[in-house]
C-alpha cells in the first residue's frame, strides 16, 4: 500500500527528464517540482501570516501532453510583486499550484524560492499525471507566496483557471501569457477545508505503581460527512502516529469501513511510556484515508497537542494544533484516568 499524500510515495530518483511541448518555450529544465506533501498537508491558505495588498502579474502557460498523460504548468516569471517583509523591504517569492477540488492523488506542486526580488524568474515545469478526461472537473489554482524563514509565509496573489471550459486545441492557449494576480477567493478556502469531522476520546492513565510514566489511550469512535473522492464509494480507515516518533512501531491503524461517508470504528489505540512532561512535547497525528487497491487517498486529519510550534526545544511544523485540538489535549493532561471526548473538524495537515 502506498499513501498518495505521503513523502515516502515519491522517489525522487525515479523522476527523469521527459519530453514536453512546453520545454522549448524557455529552455526549462523540464523537471517536475515535487513537494513533500506529508510535511504540510494543509489547506491552500492555512499558512498565510501576512496581510499583503495583492499586486503584480504572473506569466505562465499550460498544456496537456497526450503521450505522457500529464498536465504541464510552465511557470515562467512574476513582475511587480508586493512587498511582503516591510521591515526589510523584500520578498522571497515562490509559486504553488493546486488542482481543485483535490479529488485525485495530486496535492500541490511548487517552484523553487527566489530571494530578494519582486520580479522572480523561474522557468520551471510543474507536472500532474492525470487522465485528460478528469480535468473537465478540475480548476487549476496558481498562487504566489513569500517564503519566510520561520514558516510564516505570506500570500501574494493568485490566478484560477476553470479547466472544464479550457480549449486544449486552441494554440493560443499553449502560449505563455501574463495574468494579473488577484486576492484570494474565500469560497475556495471553505470548499477545501470542509473535510468532515471525527468523534474521539482521549485518556491518560498513569501507572499505579510508579506514576512516573503512563499510557495514552485514543478511542476513535466515528467520522461524519467524509468527502467523496471517486463516485459514491468510500472505504475509509484511520492511521495514528505519536509525533515526534515516526518509526514504524509508532504507527497504528483501524480496520477499513466500506461504502460509507459516516464510518463507525470504535477502535482504541494505546501508547505506553509517557512521562507527564512528555505530554507537553508530543502530538497525536490522526489521518483519515480512502482505501484503494492501488493507493490510499488522504481525506483529512487532526494533530492533537499543545500546538506550541516546538518539541523538546526544536521548532517543528507538525506542532500546529488548532485551538479545539489543543483544548482536548489540555483537558486530557489535567484529568488523568478520565475519558475526554470531543468531535473535531478534519483538516489538511
UniProtKB/TrEMBL annotation:
Provenance organism: Scopus umbretta (Hammerkop)
One of the GO BP terms on file: exocytosis
Composition-biased stretches (Low complexity): 18-28
GO MF entry, a single one: neurexin family protein binding
Pfam families recorded: C2
Region called Disordered, residue ranges: 1-28
Keywords: Cell membrane, Exocytosis, Membrane, Repeat
Biased composition (Polar residues): 1-11
Alphabetical list of CDD domains matching this protein: C2A_SLP-1_2, C2B_SLP_1-2-3-4
PROSITE patterns: C2
Protein name: Synaptotagmin-like protein 2
SUPFAM superfamilies: C2 domain (Calcium/lipid-binding domain, CaLB)
GO cellular component, as recorded: exocytic vesicle; plasma membrane
Residue stretches making up the C2 domain: 54-179, 194-319
Gene, per the UniProt record: Sytl2_1
Compartments where located: Cell membrane
Amino acid at each position: 500500500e502506498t499513501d498518495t499524500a505521503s513523502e515516502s510515495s515519491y522517489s525522487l530518483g525515479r523522476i527523469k527528464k521527459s519530453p514536453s511541448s512546453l520545454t522549448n518555450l524557455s529552455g526549462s529544465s523540464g523537471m517536475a517540482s515535487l513537494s513533500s506533501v506529508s510535511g504540510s498537508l494543509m489547506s491552500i491558505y492555512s499558512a498565510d501570516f501576512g496581510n499583503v495588498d495583492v499586486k503584480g502579474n504572473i506569466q505562465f502557460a499550460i498544456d496537456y501532453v497526450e503521450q505522457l498523460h500529464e498536465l504541464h504548468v510552465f511557470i515562467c516569471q512574476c513582475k511587480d510583486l508586493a512587498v511582503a517583509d516591510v521591515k526589510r523591504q523584500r520578498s522571497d517569492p515562490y509559486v504553488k499550484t493546486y488542482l481543485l477540488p483535490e479529488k485525485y492523488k495530486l496535492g500541490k506542486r511548487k517552484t523553487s524560492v527566489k530571494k530578494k526580488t519582486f520580479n522572480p524568474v523561474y522557468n520551471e515545469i510543474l507536472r500532474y499525471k492525470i487522465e485528460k478526461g478528469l480535468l473537465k472537473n478540475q480548476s487549476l489554482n496558481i498562487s504566489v507566496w513569500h517564503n519566510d524563514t520561520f514558516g510564516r509565509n505570506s500570500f501574494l496573489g493568485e490566478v484560477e483557471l476553470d479547466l472544464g471550459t479550457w480549449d486544449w486545441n486552441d494554440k493560443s492557449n499553449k502560449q505563455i501569457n501574463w495574468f494579473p494576480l488577484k486576492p484570494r477567493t474565500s469560497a475556495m478556502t471553505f470548499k477545501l477545508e470542509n473535510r468532515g469531522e471525527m468523534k474521539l476520546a482521549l485518556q491518560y492513565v498513569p501507572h499505579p505503581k510508579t506514576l512516573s510514566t503512563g499510557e495514552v489511550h485514543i478511542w476513535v469512535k466515528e467520522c461524519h460527512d467524509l468527502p467523496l473522492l471517486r463516485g459514491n464509494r468510500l472505504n475509509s480507515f484511520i492511521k495514528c502516529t505519536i509525533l515526534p516518533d515516526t518509526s514504524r512501531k509508532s504507527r497504528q491503524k483501524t480496520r477499513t469501513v466500506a461504502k460509507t461517508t459516516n464510518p463507525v470504528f470504535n477502535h482504541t489505540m494505546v501508547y505506553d511510556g509517557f512521562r507527564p512532561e512528555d505530554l507537553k512535547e508530543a502530538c497525536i497525528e490522526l489521518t483519515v484515508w480512502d482505501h484503494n487497491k492501488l493507493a490510499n487517498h488522504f481525506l483529512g486529519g487532526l494533530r492533537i497537542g499543545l500546538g506550541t510550534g516546538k518539541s523538546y526545544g526544536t521548532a517543528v511544523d507538525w506542532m500546529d494544533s488548532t485551538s479545539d485540538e489543543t483544548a482536548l489535549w489540555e483537558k486530557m493532561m489535567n484529568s488523568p484516568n478520565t475519558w475526554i471526548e470531543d468531535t473535531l473538524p478534519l483538516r489538511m495537515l
